[in-house]
Amino acid sequence: MKLVYVITQGGWGGAQAHVFDLISSAVQLNNQIWIICGSTGRLTDEIKHIFPKVHVIVLDDLCREVSFSHDLKAVMYLRRIFRRVKPDIIHLHSAKAGTIGRIAAYHISPVIYTVHGWAFTTGVSKKRALLAIAVERVLQPLTARYICVSKFDYNLGIKKGLMNKRHPGTVIHNGVRKEVFQHSLIKKHPTIVMAARFDVPKRQDLLIRALEKISDKSLHLILLGDGPKLLACQELANNLNIENRVHFLGSVTNVREYYADADIVMLISDYEALPISIIEGLASAKPIIASNVGGINELIQNNGFLVANSVNEIVQCVQLLLENRNLRNDMGQKSFEMFQNEYTERKMLSKTFNLYNSVMQIKR
């Protein structure tokens, strides 16, 4: 099978990790693979290094920003590639690649579009949401199948009339592989870890403010990731005089090694789909505290706390877990059980490749 994957950015995040896992499995199944990105980064670097037979193409005109000239060039370049490759399936990831890719693939190959959170999800501006819905309705006839990574996004797509019998959608949860990391032999203080890019919609700032108010002054916060809001968060920690307890470690490749030593895994955000960072927390058997937005409530039931983006509410939940080791252990065990039942990489890959085969049958 010839598979072409398209994603806007070649760096690293939840969507990129998801695409990497799909490509890894597709290579093992002896498929011919192309990946097209709008930029280079960890995703493109690792694919070139680990899977040298995968064709990696970078299109500078495939960018997140709306630009008529760049977008038109991206459509033309992509269409040229699609015509040359003649893929059996084109699998698109991220909103911009999903838009440009579907236009470029018109009457060439069937398109599967994975929704890693709709561009009109709860939390975005009304103007942006209305525009995104209008664009998505125009693109609906060009979509063979939708994959939603959360029930929340699936229900939202149905509500907006974007999925139907002719252009159906299905829920395939993100999944991660099981890995075991050892705790450090010596742990000096309780620790919270949040792994996320310092950019909209993430709210590391609220977590930093909460740390300053928590009564246990031995608590440390580890923030993994980088991005345009990193400097502002560092300045906030300095202004609150807690810079010695907030550790900005940048982008790392071994998030779960840090989770292994964490007492609590957290994600504070204004909107989300189904965050892989939380699924990795489940796989690490940790209690989770996260914002009650998007599909996060599918990941947190009796294994942690859902919070409003309120400093006081964050403080209360953190202190409750810190003061109760048995509760932390019980919630951590429930996290791992949830991971094993619903969010393994094997289950995600099996469902995705079954969908590929069903689309191929329709194509014939």
UniProtKB/TrEMBL annotation:
Gene: cps2F
Start and end residues of each Glycosyltransferase subfamily 4-like N-terminal domain: 12-177
PANTHER family per the UniProt record, alphabetical: GLYCOSYLTRANSFERASE (PTHR12526:SF630)
Domain called Glycosyl transferase family: residue spans: 179-335
Entries under InterPro entries matching the protein: Glyco_trans_1, Glyco_trans_4-like_N
Molecular function via GO: glycosyltransferase activity
Record-given protein name: Glycosyltransferase, family 1 (GT1)
Domain of life where this protein originates: Bacteria
